[in-house]
Structures are given as C-alpha cells and as structure tokens.
Design goal:
This protein is an alpha/beta fold. Helices cover about 35% and strands about 15% of the residues. α1 (about 20-30) crosses α7 (about 225-235). The protein is globular.
Length: about 300
C-alpha cells in the first residue's frame, strides 16, 4: 500500500468498529502501519472482547497492509503507556495518535447517576489525555535527541454535542467540549516539537448513534469521515494545528472557537443592581447560540 501516510506508524484507539475502524483501514490504505486498539466493550463501556481489534487487523493484512492489535484500556494510565510502547516496539516509531475511543450513557441531567457521569468523562477525557501524554513524552524525547521537528500528529475526537450542544448528553457533551479545549492547549504545548494537534467533530451513523439517529444514515457512513483524519495524520498537514473540524458526509468545515463578543465596562466595581440594564443588552448584541448543526437558528415568521 502507498499513499500520503506512506511509512508512518499510527495508533488508533477504539478502532474495532464504526468510525475508528474506518480510520484504521484508511490510514493503512494510505500506507501507514497501524496499531488497532479496542477494548471490545459494549456501547455503554461494559464488557471486553479482543475479536473486534483483531478482525480489523486481519482486514488490513489481507489488503496488503501492516497492523497489530491492542486491547488495552486507554483510560488506564499504564494501559496507555503500553499502547504507545507497542507501536514503537512493533514498528520502530510512532508518528500518529488518533484518539477515538468512547462510550455513551445518555441521560438528562436530572436523571443522571454519578456512575453514568463518571464513566463517560473517564473514557473520553482520560482516554484522550493518557495516550496523548505518552505520545507527547515520546516526541519530546525524540525532538531533544535529534534537534529536529518530529512530524508527530495527534487527532482527537470531539463531537457536535460538545461544541454545539445536544439534549440529554450533558456528560458526553462536557467530555467532548473538554476534548476540544484540550486540543487547542495541547497544540500550543507541542508545537515546539513539530507536533500538530487537531480534532474532528464527526457526524456519522455507527452503533453508538443508531439508537438516537434521526438523519440519513446512507449519506453519513464512517468511511466518509476517514479521509480527513488520514490527511491530518499525514506530513501534508504540518501547517494546520489547534483546529476543530466539523465533518459529515461530503462536508468539511472549521468549527470556530469561543471568542469575546460584546462587552461593557465600568470604572469601578459593578453594582449588581445595575446589571439588569447591562446584561440583556449585551446578550441582545451577541451572536445567538447555534443549533446542533452548528448553524444560527432561523427566526420564525
């Protein structure tokens, strides 16, 4: 296999099914050697099964590519370290980390249990931070040893639920918003090592979304997300970092970050009683919150 990732080594977490599987297959098609990580749990994170990761590895090898399976829990610090080390041991280096592992435990805030909150935050946020920590440490050591940019790439997975908001997903949305913020900060921290950090906020029909799906599943397959991830993983993306991309079907867009809008100032200390004539005016002047598609809702009438 040859392509824009020829000779690169990539780790993809949560790659046994759905979007992660599509990423692993596309990276291999573009010439990368791939560590296919998947704990093999159910959509809610329960259970474990080694077969999904191995099945994807078998697909890659059957197509002429190079891959190995990994079933570590990426939210476990030791497991994340083993995952990164496996890439280096198996293929001699690490160039790309795609953080994709995730679960869903949807519930409205009033009904949510502590376990449902903690499980989702744990898998998404810690499951992104832990592999990124060990990949960053590897690239830092590499940059210090050679004095050259490493060309490392991290691609994180946010969500429209995190950057735009979605009913019934306060745990998932908070985690995914955190990943978007994490991406921007990590991009600043790792720039001096020649590492880029970006995120995608994908919309696709997978086993995690099928229970709540209301869109056209035929047009929104996981394979339509994968080319952007492969490009972000390639040397071609060296000048793009700290960005979150909204991607669905044939559409790719840049999700623009929080920015300061209308302001009001006082020379001294604000009197709380004054703010009734200040805050509503600021809100009126500010851009409205967007809908789940990232678009400004149209006024009726």
């Amino acid at each position: 296999m040859s392509g824009i990732c020829e000779g690169r080594v990539a780790v993809v977490t949560g790659a046994g099914r759905g979007i992660g599987r599509a990423y692993a297959l596309e990276l291999a098609r573009q010439g990368a050697s791939v560590v296919v990580n998947d704990l093999g749990g159910a959509p809610d994170g329960s259970g474990a099964d080694a077969s999904p990761a191995q099945t994807v590895v078998d697909e890659i090898i059957a197509a002429g590519g190079s891959a190995v399976a990994n079933t570590d829990d990426v939210a476990d610090w030791d497991g994340a370290e083993r995952l990164v080390q496996q890439a280096v041991t198996a293929f001699g280096r690490l160039d790309v980390l795609v953080n994709n592992a995730g679960i869903l435990r949807d519930r409205t805030l009033a009904a949510m249990t502590p376990q449902e909150w903690d499980a989702v935050i744990h898998v998404h946020l810690r499951g992104t931070a832990a592999p990124s920590h060990f990949a960053a440490a590897y690239w830092r050591a590499q940059a210090k040893a050679t004095g050259e940019p490493t060309g490392g790439r991290i691609v994180n997975t946010s969500s429209p639920s995190g950057i735009y908001g979605n009913f019934g997903q306060s745990n998932y949305g908070a985690a995914k918003a955190g990943i978007a913020g994490f991406t921007i900060i990590a991009a600043k921290e790792l720039a001096s090592y020649g590492v880029t950090v970006n995120a995608i906020a994908p919309t696709a029909f997978t086993r995690l979304t099928e229970a709540v799906w209301t869109g056209d599943s035929d047009r929104l397959g996981p394979e339509q997300i994968a080319p952007l991830v492969a490009w972000l993983a390639s040397p071609e993306s060296a000048d793009v970092t700290g960005r979150v991309f909204d991607v669905k079907g044939g559409q790719i867009g840049v999700a623009e970050a929080w920015r300061l809008g209308p302001t009001a100032e006082t020379d001294g200390l604000w009197d709380a009683a004054e703010l009734g004539s200040v805050i509503p005016d600021l809100v009126q002047k500010a851009a409205p919150n967007v809908d789940m598609l990232g678009l400004v809702p149209q006024e009726e009438g």
